[in-house]
C-alpha cells in the first residue's frame, strides 16, 4: 500500500477534525455540539450532495450504457452484501441481530462517500456525478433484504403483533427520511440543471462552496460520536469487532473486482468500492428500530459509527485507492 | 385525578399518541429530546441525529377510568419497543 | 411539600413567572419546547418557528401555603390563555 | 394566463423543495427538520432580506416621489385589506376570529415576497430595493387594525382583564420579533451602505450568496408544515377554505390596479401585488395569541400556512405576473 | 415504587449519573436545557451558550431502598453545586 | 481621542447589530434566538478564527523572534493580570469571588478579538496571523492562576470534598471546550496550510467568506444577552460596576506599554491590547462553575457579558486604537 496516500488522507482537514473530535472525548474535554446541530449538518450534507449529484447526472447523461450498468451493479451489490453478511453473522447472533447488522453493512454511509470524494479531489482524480445516483440507490435495497430476512427467517419467534407487512417493509426501505431527502434533492438537482441553469448558479454558494467546511464541522462531531461508542464496543465482543473491520475490507475486494469488470475509471471505481465498504448509521438504524426492536441497537450502531466509519475514512479510503490503482488499469480494459 | 408519565423512544411517539387519542384523554404534553438509560438500552444526546432519535416524555393528566381503558394498549406498545409508564396522584389547582 | 406542574403556552411564560415571584416561591424550573394537545388547541413542533411558539412546562416545589397564595392568580392566567395546573405530594430527599 | 410562467415557476428549486416537503408528509416519511432549525432559517431570511433591502433603498434613494407614494400606498393597503376581510369574515365568524384572520390577510409573508423576488430574478425582470421597505411597512398596520377592531367591535363580550390597552396594541404591532428584526436589519443595511461600502462587501457572502440556498431549505420545511396543516383545514370548513384562496386573488386585483395608478414597473408591481395577496404566519399569530386568545389559532394559522402560502408560491405568483403583464403597460403610463 | 426528581446544573450531570449507576438504579431519564431559579442562582436560556450551561432534570423510577442507598451521595453533590431533589409515590402502569 | 474612530466603529454592521439586540430587550420585543443557535455561532466562530489563525501562523512563520516574544508576553500578561485583579477585588470580595472574577479578566474574549480584527480591517490596518496564537495561549493561564489562588489562598474555608487537585485544575484550564476547539482548529489550520494549500482554498468559503455575517448574527444575540444582564448588574454593586470598566482600561494601558516595548506594528498592538482588556465569558465561567461553586456566577458573568464586553466592542476598541496611535510610533522603535 502506498504510505503516501495514507499520509495525504490523514492530513486532510476533514480527517484532522475527525481526530480532534475523538481526542476531545478521550481527554474528557467538555466540548459539546448540542442537538439538533448535528442533524442540521447531516440534513445539509444530504441535500447538497443530492443536488450536486442531480446536476452531475444531468451532465453525464443518464441513459448511457456505463451509467445504467454501474447503477444496476450498485443495486445488486446492496442486495448481495447483506445476504453474505447475514450468513457470517448467524454464526454468532440470532436472526434479528444478524439481519439488522447485515442490513447496515449492505447499505451505505453518505459521509464516507463524501470523504472519498474529497480525497479524490485532493488527488486531482475526477469522478462522475452519476456515482451519487449509485449512492442514492444503494440505501434502500439493503434495508429491504434485512427486513425480508427477518420476515422469512424468523417467523415462529415473533408474536402476531410483530408480523412484518410488506407495506411497512417497503415504507421503511424507501421513505426513510435520509433516503427520501437524498433522492428528492437528486431529482431536484437534475430538473434544475435541465431547465434552469441560472438557478443552479444561485444554489452553488450554498450547496458547493460551503460544502467542505460543513463536512469538516460534521466530522468533528462524528469524531466525538465515534469515540463515545468505544465503551459499548467493548461489550460487543471480539467477533463483532473483527466483523466491523473485516467485512468492509471483504466488501471492498468484491467491489473492486466488480468495478474492474465494469471498466470504471479509477475515481468512479474508488467511489464504488467505498459504497460497498461503508455501513449505514442513518437509514438502517431508523428502519430497524421501528420494525425489528428485538435487535440490540447498540450492536449495529456501535460497530458502524464506532469502528467501520472511522476505519473507512482514516485508513479505508487510501487502502481502497491503492487497491484500485493495483487492480484497475488506468486506461480502460 | 391521575398523572401518567410515559417515557419511550421518540420513534414510538405516534403509536402512543394514537393510543391516547383512542382512549379520549382530555389532553397530553410531549417533551422530546429526552435521553436516559433503561434496563438494557442507553439513549444519548450525541446519537440524536442518527435514525435512532432520542426519547419522548409524555405526561397525561386524566381520570383513573381513562387509564384503565388504555392500559393494555400502552403496555403492548411499550413491551414491543421498550419504555416505562408510571401513575401517580395529582389534584387540579 | 407540594409539587406544582404548570403547562401552558410559552407566550404566557413571563406572566406565570411574575405570579410565581409575587408569591415568593423558593424556586422553579422551566422546560420549554414542550408540545401537546389540550381540550381544544394542538401545539406541534413544526409550528414552533411561527409566532405561536410551543408550550412551557414549569415545576415548582413549595409549601401548600404558597400554592394557596398564588392559586387565584395562576388560575386567571390559565383561564385567559389556556393551560393546565396540577398539584401532587413531594418529599425532599 | 400564460402557462409558460406557471411551468417556469414550478420548476424553480424553491418550489420543487416545497413540493418535496409536502410529499414527505403525505407519504409519511420520517423526514424531520427539528426545532429550532426552522427558526434559524426564518431569522436568517428576515435579517438578510432586511439588510439587502436597506442597501437597495440607499441606492434607489428614499426621498423620491415614486418611492414615497408607493410606500404610502402600501401602508394604506395594509389598513384597508383587514377592514374588507373583517366585513366578509363576520358573515360566518365572531368578532375575535374575524379580526384575527383579517389581520393575517392584511399583513404580509416575507417568504412569499422572497419567492416572488426569486421568480422575477429567473425572468430577468428587475425590481427595486425600496419594495423591501414596503414589505417592512406592511406588517404592523394590519395588526393594529385587527386589534382595534377587537377593542371597539367587541367591548361588551370581554371581561375587564382582557381590555386591550392602546399601549399593548402598539407594542404587539411594532415590537413583534419578526417585524423588529426586519426593520432593524433594513436600517443597518441602509446605514452600512451609506457609510461603509467595504462592510457591505464583507456581508455579501452571508446575506446575498447564501440566500437562495437557505430559502430552498426553508421552503422544504414550509412544505412539511403546510401539509401538516391539511387535517385541521378540513375542520375549518368550506367558507374559510374558499376565503383562503379567493381573498388573496381579490387583494391581488386591488393591488394591481393600485400598482397601475402608481405607474410601477412590472417587477415592482408584482412585488406590490404579492404583498397585498400574501398573509402573515409570523407576526400576526404572535400578536393575536397574546392579545386575542378567544380567537382559534388553528383558523388563522391553518389557512395562511396550509392554503394561502402554498397557493401563492405555486400558482399565485405566476398568475399575478400575467395579471401585471396584462394590466400594466411595460412603458410607464 | 418511588419517583425521584433531580434538578441541577448540567455541569454536574456526570457526577449525578455516576451516583445513580453506583446505586444500581434500574434506569433514569435526563432532560437537558431546563432553566429556572433556585434560592440564589438564576439559570436563563440566553446564557446557555456560555460555559455555564442550563439545568438538567433527571427522573428516576425505583424502589425506596435504592433511594436510601444513594441519598447521601446525591445530597453531597447537590449541597456542593446546588440543585434540588424530591421524592414522590409512583405506581407502574 | 479621535472621535472619528469612535463613529466609524459605531457604524460598523457588527456594532449596529449589537445595538439592535440591546434595543430589542430594552423595548421588550419578543425577538428570540433560541438555544442552541447561539452555541452554533459561537462554535463556528472559534473554529473559523482558529483555522484562519493557523494559516496565518504558518504564513508568518512561528519561529521568528518577534513571534516568540509576543506570545511569551501574552502568556505573562494572562498570568499577571489575574493576580493584579485579585488584589484589587479582595478589598470587597471573599477569596472565591475575587479569584473567579480575576480569572475572567485575565483570560480573553474571542469575540472581542474578532471585533477588533474587523475594526482593523475597516481601517485598512494589517495585523498578523500569529496574534491568534496569542489569543489561544491567553485563555488557559488565567484560569490556572484563578484556581491556584483558590487552592492556596482559601485552604481552611473549604471542606475536604472541595479540595482542588492539581489534575483537575490543569484539566479545567486546558481542556475546556472553547479553549480546546480554538487550539485544535489553529493546529489544523497550520497543518493544512503547510501540507495542503488546495484544502485551504476549499475551506475558505466557510471559514473566511461567511465569517463576517455570522459575527453580525452572533453580535445580535450578544446584544440581547448583554441587555438581559442589566438587572443583575444593579445587584452587583457600584464597586464591581466600576471594576468592570476601569480594569479593562487599566489592563489596556499596561498592554500598550508592553506592545511598545515589543515593537509591535499598530495592528498587532491593538490586538494585544484588546486581549489584555477583554474578559472571558466562555472558558472561565465553565471552569469556575465546576471547581469554585462558592463563587457567585452572576458576579463574573454579569460583569463580563453585561458591561465589559459591550464597553470593549463599542467604546474600548476605538479608544485603544487612539492609545496605540499615540504611544506607538508607526515606524518601529
Ligand atoms: N427506571 C427508570 N426511571 C426513569 N426512566 C427510565 C427508567 N427505565 C427506563 N427509563 C427511560 O425509558 C427509556 C426506554 O427504556 P428501555 O425500556 O430500556 O428502552 C430509557 O431510555 C429511559 O429514558
Ligand atoms: N390533560 C392534560 N394532560 C397533560 N397536558 C395537558 C392536558 N391538557 C392540556 N395539556 C397541556 O396544556 C397545553 C395547553 O392546553 P390548552 O388549555 O388546550 O391550550 C396543551 O398543549 C398541553 O400541552
Ligand atoms: N423550589 C424549586 N422548585 C423547582 N425547581 C427548583 C426549586 N429550587 C431550585 N430549583 C431548580 O434547581 C436549579 C438549581 O438551583 P440552585 O440550588 O439555586 O442552584 C434551579 O435553577 C431550578 O431550576
Ligand atoms: Na455497504
Ligand atoms: Na396581505
Ligand atoms: Na484579559
Describe this structure in words.
The complex is a heterohexamer, with three copies of chain A (333 residues) and three copies of chain B (93 residues). With 333 residues, chain A is mainly alpha-helical. Chain A is built from 16 helices and no strands. Chain A is globular and about 55 Å long. Chain B has a five-stranded antiparallel beta sheet with strand order 3-2-4-1-5, with helices on one face. In chain B, α1 runs antiparallel to α2 (64-81). Chain B is α+β, with helices and mostly antiparallel strands. Chain B is built from two helices and six strands; from the N terminus they run βαβββαββ. The radius of gyration of chain B is 13 Å and the shape is globular. Chains A and F meet through α2, α6 and α12 of A and α3, α10 and α11 of F. β2 (28-37) of chain B pairs antiparallel with β2 of chain E, so a sheet runs across the interface. Residues 81, 105-108, 251, 276, 278-279 of chain A line the site of one sodium ion.
Task: Give me the secondary-structure topology.
The complex is a heterohexamer, with three copies of chain A (333 residues) and three copies of chain B (93 residues).
Chain A: H1 3-10, H2 13-26, H3 37-60, H4 65-89, H5 95-106, H6 110-122, H7 130-137, H8 139-153, H9 166-174, H10 177-195, H11 197-209, H12 211-236, H13 238-261, H14 266-277, H15 283-291, H16 297-327
Chain B: E1 2-9, H1 13-22, E2 28-37, E3 42-43, E4 55-62, H2 64-81, E5 84-89, E6 91-92
Antiparallel strand pairs in B: 1-4, 1-5, 2-3, 2-4
Helix pairs in contact in B: 1-2
Bound molecules: adenosine monophosphate (3 copies) and sodium ion (3 copies).
One adenosine monophosphate sits between chains C (7-8, 34, 36-41, 43, 55, 82-84) and B (26-29, 59-62).
Amino acid at each position: 500500500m502506498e504510505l503516501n496516500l495514507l499520509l495525504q488522507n490523514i492530513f486532510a482537514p476533514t480527517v484532522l477534525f475527525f481526530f480532534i473530535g475523538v481526542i476531545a472525548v478521550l481527554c474528557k474535554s467538555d466540548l459539546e455540539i448540542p442537538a439538533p446541530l448535528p442533524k442540521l449538518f447531516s440534513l445539509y450534507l444530504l441535500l447538497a450532495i443530492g443536488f450536486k449529484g442531480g446536476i452531475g447526472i444531468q451532465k453525464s447523461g443518464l441513459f448511457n450504457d456505463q451509467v445504467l450498468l454501474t447503477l444496476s451493479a450498485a443495486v445488486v451489490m446492496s442486495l448481495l452484501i447483506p445476504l453474505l453478511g447475514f450468513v457470517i453473522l448467524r454464526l454468532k447472533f440470532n436472526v434479528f441481530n444478524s439481519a439488522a447488522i447485515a442490513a447496515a453493512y449492505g447499505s451505505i454511509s453518505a459521509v464516507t462517500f463524501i470523504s472519498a470524494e474529497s480525497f479524490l479531489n485532493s488527488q486531482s482524480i475526477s469522478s462522475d456525478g452519476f456515482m451519487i445516483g449509485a449512492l442514492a440507490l444503494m440505501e434502500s435495497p439493503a434495508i429491504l433484504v434485512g427486513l425480508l430476512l427477518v420476515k422469512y427467517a424468523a417467523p415462529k419467534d415473533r408474536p402476531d403483533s410483530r408480523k412484518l407487512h410488506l407495506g411497512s417493509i417497503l415504507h421503511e426501505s424507501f421513505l426513510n427520511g435520509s433516503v427520501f431527502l437524498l433522492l428528492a434533492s437528486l431529482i431536484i438537482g437534475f430538473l434544475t440543471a435541465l431547465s434552469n441553469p441560472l438557478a443552479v448558479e444561485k444554489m452553488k454558494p450554498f450547496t458547493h462552496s460551503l460544502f467542505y467546511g460543513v463536512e469538516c464541522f460534521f466530522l468533528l462531531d462524528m469524531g466525538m460520536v465515534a469515540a463515545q461508542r468505544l465503551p459499548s464496543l467493548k461489550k460487543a465482543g471480539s467477533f463483532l469487532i473483527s466483523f466491523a473491520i473485516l467485512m468492509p475490507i471483504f466488501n471492498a475486494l468484491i467491489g473492486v473486482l466488480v468495478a474492474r469488470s465494469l471498466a470504471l475509471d479509477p475515481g468512479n471505481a474508488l467511489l464504488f468500492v467505498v459504497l460497498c465498504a461503508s455501513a449505514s448509521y442513518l437509514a438502517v438504524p431508523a428502519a430497524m428500530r421501528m420494525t425489528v426492536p428485538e435487535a440490540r441497537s447498540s450492536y449495529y450502531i456501535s460497530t458502524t459509527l464506532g469502528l467501520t466509519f472511522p476505519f473507512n475514512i482514516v485508513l479505508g479510503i487510501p487502502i481502497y485507492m491503492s487497491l484500485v490503482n493495483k487492480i484497475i488499469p488506468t486506461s480502460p480494459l | 385525578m391521575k398523572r401518567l408519565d410515559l417515557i419511550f423512544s421518540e420513534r414510538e411517539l405516534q403509536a402512543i399518541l394514537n393510543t391516547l387519542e383512542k382512549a379520549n384523554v382530555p389532553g397530553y404534553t410531549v417533551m422530546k429530546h429526552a435521553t436516559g438509560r433503561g434496563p438494557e438500552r442507553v439513549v444519548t444526546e450525541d446519537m440524536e441525529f442518527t435514525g435512532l432519535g432520542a426519547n419522548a416524555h409524555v405526561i397525561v393528566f386524566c381520570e383513573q377510568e381513562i387509564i384503565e381503558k388504555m392500559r393494555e394498549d400502552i403496555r403492548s406498545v411499550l413491551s414491543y419497543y421498550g419504555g416505562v409508564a408510571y401513575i401517580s396522584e395529582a389534584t387540579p389547582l
